[in-house]
Write a structure and sequence with these properties.
The protein is built from five helices and eight strands, in the order βαβαβββαββαβα. With 193 residues, the protein is of the alpha/beta class. Helix 2 packs parallel to helix 4 and helix 3 packs across helix 5. It is globular, with a radius of gyration of 16 Å.
Length: 193
């Protein structure tokens, strides 16, 4: 099997597959991913998966991240607050997931905080994407984030969240997603040999 490091915040989001449980929140995600990548073999790609909230997309919707945006980071000097995914991995994920939306995924340690978004663009928020993609970027490892919407942004009643259905969707699409990312990684690795 091609060298794909599957990363998720929780064991549940790995859907029974082997991978890295990076923990909840951007700091835990970055630290765990950086540690794993320090020991990774050459040719590794990162596939970060999990659940997300959205203000417009229905539960069960699939999202491939067009960029990871760190909403908690604000300063008066230049900062890194956006990380683009690897374009080849994005194309691969979109091929594996027909009908998936290509949208920015906003990362915050507090997922119900107000967001500045682009008008007309659905908000998709989660807690780890920026940390995972930034760690991969600094390690020189291609990465992509894929999310399944489980709830409406700001919905405090967890009984109204569709976690089980979203996990079922994630588990159903993971095999073809991992295969597609792995195939892309093999092609990219062979180009540099």
């Amino acid at each position: 099997m091609p060298n794909v490091l599957l990363v998720a915040a929780t064991e549940l989001e790995l859907c029974g597959r082997g991978g890295l449980v990076c923990g909840v929140g951007p700091v835990e995600a970055a630290a765990a991913t950086a540690r794993a990548l320090a020991a990774a073999e050459p040719g590794t790609a990162v596939l970060h998966v999990g659940l997300a909230g959205s203000d417009e997309l229905a539960p069960g919707s699939l999202v491939v991240g067009s960029q990871a945006v760190y909403d908690d980071l604000v300063a008066r000097w230049p900062i890194v607050a956006r990380v683009p995914p690897d374009p080849d991995l994005v194309e691969s994920a979109l091929r594996a997931l027909p009908g998936a939306e290509l949208l920015p995924v906003r990362t915050s340690a507090r997922v119900d905080a107000p967001r500045q978004t682009t008008p007309g663009t659905p908000l998709v928020e989660a807690m780890e994407g920026f940390g995972v993609l930034r760690a991969a970027q600094l390690a020189g490892v291609p990465a992509v984030e894929v999310r399944v919407v489980s709830n409406e942004v700001g919905e405090e009643d967890r009984e109204r969240w569709s976690v089980d259905a979203a996990l079922e969707t994630l588990g159903r699409v993971l095999p073809q997603l991992v295969e597609s990312i792995g195939t892309t990684t093999v092609r990219a690795t062979s180009r540099f040999r």
